[in-house]
């Protein structure tokens, strides 16, 4: 089985994501939301497809502005479903809008999306999946795993001998910190 560290280095799309984002702790709620939306949209497709469409998603979703997306109505839904630059899947579009509203609620209750994640860390993967399924839409086991690995809440994003792993460890991801 190949690992992202074997595939990504030097690749025009995978390389920058692997080297500078994947596995690093993410503090900003907008960036966390973006990562969740991208992972949801990857379901059934390749990660390369999502990375190639990332800029189009940023444009179509107002820079992943949680407040703006949470306010989307029928016109915005239809606009997104007609946008050939993004993945036009009704369930994924609905999940994006719904999940933005959920994050607004989590911010009210915990101060931020990150604080909500930190509040529940550490959990075993299966418990994270149950929590995400109760809280968000379109979050199955693989989506939850990739979201949490990509944002530093679960280990496994990089091989131990990958040069990026040392930088991630230095950044202090949640899976290294003890509660």
Automatic annotation (TrEMBL):
<dbReference type="InterPro" id="IPR052891">
    <property type="entry name" value="DNA-3mA_glycosylase"/>
</dbReference>
<dbReference type="InterPro" id="IPR005019">
    <property type="entry name" value="Adenine_glyco"/>
</dbReference>
<dbReference type="InterPro" id="IPR011257">
    <property type="entry name" value="DNA_glycosylase"/>
</dbReference>
<dbReference type="Pfam" id="PF03352">
    <property type="entry name" value="Adenine_glyco"/>
</dbReference>
<protein>
    <submittedName>
        <fullName>DNA-3-methyladenine glycosylase I</fullName>
    </submittedName>
</protein>
């Amino acid at each position: 089985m190949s690992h992202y560290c074997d595939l990504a280095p030097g690749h025009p799309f995978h390389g920058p994501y692997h080297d500078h984002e994947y596995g690093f702790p993410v503090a900003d709620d907008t960036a966390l939301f973006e990562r969740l939306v991208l992972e949801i949209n990857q379901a059934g497709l390749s990660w390369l497809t999502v990375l190639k469409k990332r800029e189009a998603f940023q444009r179509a979703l107002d820079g992943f502005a949680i407040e703006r997306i949470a306010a989307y109505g029928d016109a915005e839904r239809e606009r997104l479903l007609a946008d050939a630059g993004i993945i036009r899947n009704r369930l994924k579009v609905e999940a994006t809008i719904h999940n933005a509203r959920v994050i607004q609620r989590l911010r009210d209750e915990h101060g931020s999306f990150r604080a909500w994640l930190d509040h529940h860390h550490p959990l075993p993967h299966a418990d994270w999946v149950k929590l995400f399924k109760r809280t968000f839409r379109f979050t199955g086991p693989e989506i939850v795993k990739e979201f949490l690995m990509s944002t530093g809440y679960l280990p496994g994003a990089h091989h131990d001998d990958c040069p990026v792993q040392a930088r991630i460890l230095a950044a202090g991801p949640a899976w290294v910190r003890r509660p």
